[in-house]
Amino acid sequence: MHPPNDTTSASDRWPSVDYAEWSATCDTVHAHSQVLGKLAVALAPPEPQLQHAALRLTARGLETLPLPAPDRSGAFVAGLDLHAHEAFLEHSDGRVRRVSLTPDRPVGEVTREILSNARALGGPVEINPTPQEVWWTVPLDEDEDHHTYDAEAVGSYFSAATQASLVLAAFRAPYRARETPVNTWWGSFDLAVNLFSGLPAEPPSDDFIMRNAMDVQEIAVGWWPGNPRYPRAAFYAFAHPAPVEFANARLSPPAARWDDGLGEYILDWAAIRSTPDPHATALQFARSALRHACTVCQWAPPLLASAEGIPPPIR
Questions:
Q1: Taking the model in full, what pTM does it have?
Q2: Would you say residue 251 has pLDDT above 90?
């Protein structure tokens, strides 16, 4: 519920996010987020399902978890402040370095400055600058193509992402088995929560990401702001591994649908925004997808019961 004095409308809190209208800026911010992720990959202790590489959405933007400084001086966090429109690095000893993202600075220029500041704060840092899971190949520290930065569009994205993250946090909260926090994945530039059954699974392919991220049974629910493959903001849900009949359900709300091309259930952001309570609508989709997935994938009944808010008995 919103406070009684909250006079903003749902459409204000859940702004329009149309990839076609802000694609150039979206791709620039996506590239900047990859620099943060590459720092995490280089410095964080590896975790199952690549959890160490994920970013977190905070009240000011996207951030890594604290990363160990190579010179053993402590830890630092790297992030994108989407209010101030700056990249930042903050050391545990209080030192801070900031890098402006405006006006329309190329990704390569920003990347080089971020890395220079990271080295100044924490010692020698090297990343693999090759972008991942995207449709361009220019190394991040050489990328002069992506430079558009529309601050208003970034603000709309961040407001939308914040609402989406609150839905995902509410969705995962009651689950009583292994699960993830709300992650921001810099490869696919989406937010996601993954719930696990506790059993292993065969990865869908042998590439590095799939081999390491999808070697267990999981149900994922997430949100993305759109991309060339699906140029609309939307919530999505999938299960791995899933039987053929997984694609045959009618989820709630009625606007939810299976997308053959994506191999996922989709609920478009625009459909959510048009409802009286967008948060409740999106949460209904997430829970409906989980209920269906647990049933057809034959997960242990207590897992679904816990996700529905019924915790297991105290032993």
A1: 0.93
A2: yes
